[in-house]
Description:
Blueprint lengths: L1 H5 L2 H8 L7 E6 L4 H15 L2 E6 L16 E6 L5 H13 L3 E6 L11 E5 L9 H20 L17
Helix pairs in contact: 2-5, 3-5
Amino acid sequence: MIDATLKLDDQIRELAGQFVSKQHALFLGRGPSFPVALEGALKLKEISYIHAEAYAAGELKHGPLALVDDGMPVVAVAPNDALLEKLKSNLQEVRARGGKLYVFADPDTGFESGDGIEVMRMPEHVENLQIPMVYTIPLQLLAYHVAVLKGTDVDQPRNLAKSVTVE
């Protein structure tokens, strides 16, 4: 599945062009997808310097929904799991406020690209224990390609220390 996911690289590179001029991004996930959303937001801010936050999609109405408009991309992690229908409801709230959705989804989730929504079709159904391994890859690739397009140094991000150097 990881090999198949890596084959999405060209599509993700194209998608990255839509993030280059943005100042903020919101990442959403539910259940095992939430930590994946956290990782996606972290990587985007670390190497592209775009402010990015991740939220548990069920908490959307507790703050971040107020920030959603057509200028803030919203990235959703959407495997076909027990929480899919609840996630779809959350994403309808985003669309109702003019938010542009970028949904990374299993093929059988029913998501279709259209007005205000771009679907990145993951290679096949991903089981719960596989979600972090498979879904993290495209979000990291997205951050990487956005950073490269912006001209930031992905090998030495500013103000970032990967080890503890002081107490």
